Every structure is written in structure tokens, then in C-alpha cells.
Amino acid sequence: MSFIEQLKFTGDGLIPAIVQEQRTGRVLMMAWMNRASIEKTIETGKTWFWSRSRQKFWMKGESSGQVQVVKDIAFDCDGDTLLIQVEQTGAACHEGYQSCFFRSVGSGQSEVRVTEPQLADPAQLYRQK
Fold this sequence. Notes:
CATH superfamily: Phosphoribosyl-AMP cyclohydrolase
Mean pLDDT: 92
Strand order of the largest sheet: 2-1-6-5
Oligomer: single chain
Structural class: mainly beta
Largest sheet: 4 strands, mixed
């Protein structure tokens, strides 16, 4: 039995994937994968996802150049979440930050602070190439 057959996908055929920088352990992002994106990720060594909002199969970095090279793929004990360790080139976040988790909640519920520097201007990351 392949590891993909051991996974528990949602009714929509998706599974959440947490992406982590292997070198630092920093959580970079969370995205959704389907069977095809998992297979393509394994085949190419780059991360591929399914966009629920755009209903589109996509490779991380295809428009920005900020690619993720896969170092390890693991799944949790329930088989319902993936952990993908990568080597990240540049910003993982489409807003130009190293991680999509660049904001933290302060002492009050309405207090939000940015916890890391912006690495790139999003307008420059996604301009037409």
C-alpha cells in the first residue's frame, strides 16, 4: 500500500499540508493538496498544491520564483495532515514575508503585531514575467 492510500482526504479530496523550513523548523505556510498535487510534488521535488479559491493546481513559486525544494514528506498519526519540509527560496508568503505566519496577537484581541521583516514587495514578486 502506498503512503497516499493511507491518507484521509476531505470529502472534496483534499488534505491540509503544513510546510516547514527544514533548516530552521519555521512553519512557512499551510496549503491544500489533492492526490495529483502530492504525486506531482514527489515527481518534481517541488511543492504543488490545490487552490480552493481559484480551483487551480499550482506550483509554489511558479509566478514569483520563490520555490520550495522538498526535503521530506511526513504524515500524522491520523493520516489527515501532511508535514512537508522544504528548502525555501526567498519569501514563502505571497505578501513578501518569509512565513505566512508573520503576524501575532498581542495582549488584547485587537492588538496585532508584525513579527518579521518583509523580504520582498508583493507587486514585484508577482509582476508578469
